[in-house]
Design brief:
Largest sheet: none
Number of strands: 0
Distance between the termini: 235 Å
């Protein structure tokens, strides 16, 4: 083969190689554009996910603040409950002391009841004696009234006797 045929052949090969390179570059550009499009979509999705994540983190932060506030309220309520429980414990201890004293108080109340029953009997006796005394005083009152009437009558009679004695004491004329 001659040099010219070789050169033409080489030229054809180079032209084919150039066309293949052109097609290859074109295919590579398409692939790069597809990759860039995919990368852009992936970047946009990542940005959207990041924004959504920030939104949810912000929402979660607000919820955590609300939970902490509620827990602080609960702690204050627990403090109040603890104070009330302590007050109730003191009252229960006082009640326990009172319950321990109940047998003593029961015995004392029984003793007082027996004394009250005895006093009731004594009061009944006194009432009977007072009624009897009132009847006797009533009879004495009748007797004293009768005696007063008799003394009055006696005084009148003595007054009349005195008048008679004075008459008798006069010289006889």
């Amino acid at each position: 083969m001659s040099d010219r045929a070789r050169i033409e052949r080489l030229n054809e090969t180079l032209t084919q190689l150039e066309q293949m390179l052109g097609q290859s570059e074109h295919a590579a550009e398409k692939r790069v554009r597809g990759f860039v499009s995919i990368a852009r979509i992936a970047a946009a999705l990542t940005a959207v996910l990041a924004l959504a994540n920030l939104y949810f983190i912000n929402d979660l932060t607000q919820e955590i603040h609300a939970v902490i506030a509620r827990m602080e309220q609960m702690n204050s309520h627990f403090d109040q409950v603890a104070d009330r429980m302590n007050a109730m414990r003191v009252q229960v201890e006082g009640m326990e002391e009172n319950v321990r004293l109940m047998p003593v108080m029961d015995a004392q109340m029984r003793e007082i009841a027996s004394h009250v029953a005895s006093m009731r009997g004594n009061v009944e006796q006194m009432r009977g004696i007072t009624d009897s005394t009132a009847r006797r005083i009533g009879r004495m009152n009748v007797s004293v009234t009768d005696m007063a009437a008799r003394f009055h009558h006696l005084n009148t009679s003595i007054g009349a006797i005195g008048g008679d004695v004075n008459q008798m004491a006069l010289p006889v004329p």
